[in-house]
Structures are given as C-alpha cells and as structure tokens.
C-alpha cells in the first residue's frame, strides 16, 4: 500500500507547504490534498448526479456521445495503455470542458433537472482549489507564486471534469482487462474524488521491470492529486507523472477526475529552475493544444 503524503491547502505556512509539495512530487507524483475548500455536500451531490446519468439506458447516453472531447464515452471505447491487445478499458465516462467555449453537451433538463448546475458549480470550485494549489507548486519550483498566471496558463484554462463509472459486475476473467489500464495523465495536475471503493494503484518507477504496483486507498474529504505529463515536461522530469491504473473492481465504482490543463495557446517549455548545463531541457517548447491533441489521438486510435 502506498503511504502518500497529506498536504493541507489551508496551512498558513506556505513555504513549508511548498517544500512538502516539492518532496511529494519528486518522490511519488501523488499526494492527498485536504482543506481544499470544496464542500463535502457538493462532492456528494456530484456523485449522486453522476450515478443518475450512468444508470440511463445506453441509447439515451449515446445521444450525448463524445464530440469535441465532451460528452459520453461507452464501455471499452478507450484503451489508456495502447500496448495491451484487449478490447479496451471496462469503464464508461462523461467529459465536461471549459464553460467559456460553450461546447459542453448536457442531459435534458426534464431527465436530470439539477445535473448541469451541479456540474458547473463543481467545475468552478475545483478550479479554484486547483489554482490555489498551482501557486504552491510554483513556490515549490522556486518561482513566483503567480508564475502560472503570468505565463497565461490559467487565462482560459482548458480544464476538464471526467465522470467515471466502473460497472464492477463484468466478466473480468481476462487478466488484461482493467478498469483503467496503466497510464499517466496529460494534465498539469489531476484532482480526483472517489467513492471509497478500492481499485486505484500506482507504479512509482515506470522504468523498472517488473513493475511494482501499490494500492492507493481513498481518504475521506481529501482529493487524490497527481502530477500530469504536462507538468513533468515543464519541470524537465523533476516532478514525476506517475503511472497509475484501476483494477477491474469487484463492485461498482465511481470517481470524478478534474484535469487542470493550461490554456490551449500556453507554451510549455522547460522552467529555468529545472534545467542546468548538467541537466539540459529534454523537450522542445510546444503549444499545449498540439501536445494534447497528439496524446488524445494515440489513446482513441
């Protein structure tokens, strides 16, 4: 079982918090975030609404099939680990993107009356917690705490909510079928809420064979936060985007991921505090949207 650090976002000692975050991101790439300001009742409401949507008949869900990276993705439609030869991951999901783009798809008001308002409120609240956390991450990288604002990362951030449902009663006789196969996230950071049903595992050293997987238990009232590939790229591999997966749960499981991405036009390039003569930049600068589109293409091909 992974013993992950717990970061208190409400702590007044920002430099001590920043040091703890730095250590967590170097050692694990994962940590728990408490006192993040997102109300427990709201989180509960999001899970209730998510459950209502996923229990609709498949033909109703397919009316909102994913387009423009928003909407419904059915079971087995995605394979996060493209090296597997199986049919896909045993989960269904629903994406909600940035409100300012007006591209989101919503269930009909008469079917799910408070669905949209619940999701939009959650988006704003988690965005606010994530922005606060990014200022601590900036400090942890020896940067000004408003660094990510200054480079335009949060100017119309391209963040997404992803509602996830793992049915749990599927035929999991195949060893290679996962709830979510091994992957790292594309984002800067991911803030994950779970319903407490186990299944999430991390592999701290992706280069080591055989891979060692550790269970990540959920913690009441905490987000599980992980570093994504965009942040790994920005920090020149100082902060690790850790491989993780979800085992096929024996019982039904729900989770809600919030992928905090920079704005589409933001240039992701090696931070000055993360490179030196001995450790030159590993990647050329890239516009975030170009990076994201390439990653999505591989996942859904």
TrEMBL record:
Q: Which InterPro entries match?
A: DIOX_N, IPNS-like_FE2OG_OXY, IPNS-like_sf, Oxoglu/Fe-dep_dioxygenase_dom
Q: Does the keyword Glycosyltransferase apply?
A: no
The cross-references to PROSITE patterns, in alphabetical order and at most eight, read: FE2OG_OXY
Gene Ontology MF, one: dioxygenase activity
Q: Does the keyword Metal-binding apply?
A: yes
Keywords attached to this entry = Iron, Metal-binding, Oxidoreductase
Top-level taxon: Eukaryota
According to the entry, every stretch annotated as the Fe2OG dioxygenase domain falls at 157-262
Q: Which family does it belong to?
A: Belongs to the iron/ascorbate-dependent oxidoreductase family.
Q: What is this protein called?
A: Fe2OG dioxygenase domain-containing protein
């Amino acid at each position: 079982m992974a013993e992950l650090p717990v970061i208190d976002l409400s702590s007044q000692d920002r430099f001590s918090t920043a040091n703890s975050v730095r250590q967590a991101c170097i050692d694990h790439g994962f940590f728990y975030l408490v006192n993040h300001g997102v109300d427990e009742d709201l989180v509960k409401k999001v899970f209730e609404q998510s459950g209502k949507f996923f229990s609709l008949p498949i033909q109703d869900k397919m009316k909102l099939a994913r387009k423009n990276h928003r909407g419904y993705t059915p079971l087995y439609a995605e394979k996060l680990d493209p090296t597997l030869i199986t049919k896909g991951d045993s989960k269904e999901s629903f994406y909600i993107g940035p409100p300012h783009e007006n591209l989101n798809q919503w269930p009909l008001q008469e079917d799910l009356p408070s669905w949209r308002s619940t999701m939009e409120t959650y988006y704003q609240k988690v965005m606010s917690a994530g922005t606060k956390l990014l200022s601590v991450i900036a400090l942890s990288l020896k940067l000004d705490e408003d660094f990510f604002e200054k480079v335009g990362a949060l100017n119309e951030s391209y963040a997404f909510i992803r509602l996830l449902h793992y049915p749990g009663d599927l035929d999991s006789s195949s060893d290679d079928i996962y709830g979510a196969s091994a992957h790292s996230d594309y984002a800067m950071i991911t803030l994950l809420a779970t319903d407490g049903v186990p299944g999430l595992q991390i592999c701290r050293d992706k280069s080591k064979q055989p891979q060692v997987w550790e269970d990540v238990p959920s913690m009441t009232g905490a987000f599980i936060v992980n570093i994504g590939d965009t942040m790994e790229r920005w920090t020149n591999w100082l902060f690790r985007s850790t491989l993780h997966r979800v085992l096929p749960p024996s019982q039904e499981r729900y989770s809600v991921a919030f992928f905090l991405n920079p704005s589409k036009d933001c240039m992701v390039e090696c931070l000055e505090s993360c490179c030196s003569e001995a450790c030159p930049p590993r990647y050329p600068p890239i516009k975030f949207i170009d990076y994201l589109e390439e990653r999505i293409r591989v996942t859904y091909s």
